[in-house]
Every structure is written in C-alpha cells, then in structure tokens.
Amino acid sequence: MNFELCYYPTTIIGVDDDPIFLQNFSLVLDPSLAFRHCTTPSEALTLARQSVRSYQEQGLVTRYRDYAGQAVEDGAHAVVVLDLSGLWKRIYRADRFEETSVAIVDYAMPEMDGLSFCRQLAGTRIKKIMLTGRMDEHHAIDALNEGVIDAFVTKGDSDAPNKIGTLVKRLQRSYFREVNFDLENLLLDRAPEFLQDETIAEHLRREWQSRDIVEYYLTLNPPGYVAVSRSGQVLRSVVMTDADFASHEDIVRDCNGPEELLDMLSRRAAVPFFWRSGGFFSPDDDWRDQLFDAHIVEGSRGKYAVSLITDPPVTEGAGQDVMSYDQFLEAFDLDSAPG
User: Torsion over CA of 281, 284, 290 and 295, rounded to 10 degrees?
Assistant: First the structure.
C-alpha cells in the first residue's frame, strides 16, 4: 500500500546507568521526540512490557468462535476480525503517545549488559539502538547480524547525536510498517481503493503537512482518515470513488430521497458524510449539513472526490477530550528526568 493505515508519535526510552549522560544526551535530540530516561534495565523493561501489553489490550482484533453462521474452533482456526472503528478512537486515549517504539541502550551496565536487555525484548516490535564503546563494537556487530539489535552507534563518535536522531526517525517508521503490515493482512479485500494510489497519498501528505498533522488513522465509513494536528485539532479526510458515490445514490433512490441530493451526488458536487445515521442517508435526517466541499483529484487509478473536514461531527466519542501531542510533551517533560 502507498499509505500507512495509522501513525502517531511514540516514546523513545534511553537506558544508561549514568543519569548525567542521559540528561545531556536528551538535550541534543530533536525536542519533538518524547525521550524517557531509565537508569536501570529493569525499569526500562517494565516500561517496555507495559507498552506492549497496553497495545495488545486495545481491542482492535477480535477472535470469534461463531462468525457469520459458521461454528469455528478456538485456536489456529479461529476467525480474526479487525475493528477499524477502534483504530481512530485512539485519539481519545491520553496514553497513546507513551507507546514505546525505540530503545537506545548502553552496552556496559552493572545490572545487565545492553545485549542481554535487548534479548529480553525479543518478540516485540520495539526497535533497539546500541550505544557502545570502541572495545565493544565487535559485540554490537555480531548482535546486529543476529538481529538482536537494529543499529549501533559508538559513544565517542562526535556525530553520534545526529546519527541517532536519523536512526530514531527511520526505526519509528519501521516500527509502524510492522504494525501496518498486520493491519493490512486483516483488512484483505476491505481495504479502500485509494490506498493503492500514490497520487492520493501525496495529496494527503501535502494537505496534512500544511496543517501540522502528526497522527492519522484509517476509517472505512466513510473511507478516509481521522487526523489530528500537533496542537490537537481533529480533521477528517474523506476520499470517495465513483463506486462509493454510486452506493450512496442507490440508497437515496431506495429511500425516495430528494432529487436535489441525487443531483449533487451525481455531479460530485459534494462529499457525503451522513454521520447522524451510521454513514448512510436516512430520510429522517436533515442531509444538508452532512455534505462537505468536494475537491476532485485525478489519481493514477482514477478520479477521487476528496474532502478535508475540520472538527468533524462524530457519533461516538463526541465530547471527549483529545490530548494533543504538544500537551503530552509538556506534561512528559515534567516527569521524565533521569533517576
């Protein structure tokens, strides 16, 4: 796919028994990164395992014993269903940014050496960067070749902060590629067509960059994304194909809906988001405030009608607070000092 199904800022943990080094190191990293100091491997392992457990408990995946009228045995043959409505609702989870994606680990520590720590994270998606002394580089090279770590940087390297900053950004994307790979496999043929269109992906990237979007989540009804800016403004990007419009037109006709609405849909003059009635037209609702400006984009796979809705209406979660990434960083900086 040309675009991720979801992305949001995550936390980096630094593991070193020297709190002064961690403090100085954090000052040269990108200030937009959430960098949590851990002076013992056991403290860092507790945080990492809590992060993994929190992600697993978010309820995106459901295993059914009985699904679509078919009895299914537990275990390897259970039907697995992805609930994408739970994906975008992460914007209401204040702890979503605390998810650990990368660990930066010192090699030489008294409680447990860095390689032993990284082996404890085997089976998780957390990426590992090893900080080594000159004498430890051969251990790091072996660990890299074995897949125990994802990268290493020598502490004495004068360009170490820049190298680590570049590595962190690359590994955070790698972390989400694995998350998205699992989601894509569960979506299968339910994936919206626009995800395969690079032109649409570039259009969304430009739109979001201009609005300082830092997190986004795929939705199916309507097809598109719920996105949140760094300051916490919520937007909804709706991307509709001719087939999507045809489905809405059929429902309006079946309900003996107004000709004015049918005309607007047939001309692609507006994008429908019937949020009051579960995503589709209902004759009991006023439809006029459920249509949004349409921008026609010529994609590589066809034409799309795209609408970017600011502060979109929602049926679930309305009234809940959305903690912005700026707010998270402000609170995070107050309690993430070493030790």
Answer: 30
Over residues 32-51, the mean pLDDT reads: 92
CB 269 within 8 A of CB 294: yes
Side by side, the strands of the sheet bearing 6-7 are: 6-7, 213-220, 223-229, 234-240, 302-310, 295-299
Rounded to an integer, what distance in angstroms lies between the CA atom of residue 135 and that of residue 124? 29
The helix (H) or strand (E) run that includes residue 143 is helix 137-146
CA distance 10 to 97: 5
CA-based radius of gyration for the chain: 23
Q: How far apart are alpha carbons 294 and 124 in whole angstroms?
A: 42
20-27, Cβ contacts within 8 angstroms, sequence gap of 24 or more: 20/338, 21/106, 22/338, 23/337, 23/338, 25/161
Helices 242-254 and 259-266 pack at an angle, to 10 degrees, of: 170
Domain boundaries, the chain: 9-58+93-188, 192-310
CA distance 306 to 294: 6
The answer, as to whether pTM is greater than 0.90, is no
pLDDT at 44 over 50: yes
Model pLDDT, residue 318:
54
The pLDDT assigned to 191 comes to: 83
193-202 burial, b at 16+ Cβ within 10 Å, e below that, comes to: bbbebebbbe
* Per-residue pLDDT reduced to its tens digit, 98-117: 999 999 999 989 889 999 99
Average pLDDT rounded to a whole number, residues 275-298? 93
Strand partners, 204: none
Dihedral, CA of residue 63, residue 68, residue 70 and residue 76, to nearest 10: -20
Instruction: Measure the CA–CA gap between 278 and 261, rounded to whole angstroms.
Output: 18
Domain at 9-58+93-188, CATH homologous superfamily: Response regulator (3.40.50.2300)
pLDDT for 60 equals 52
pLDDT recorded at residue 188: 67
Tokens at 289, concatenated: 């405030």
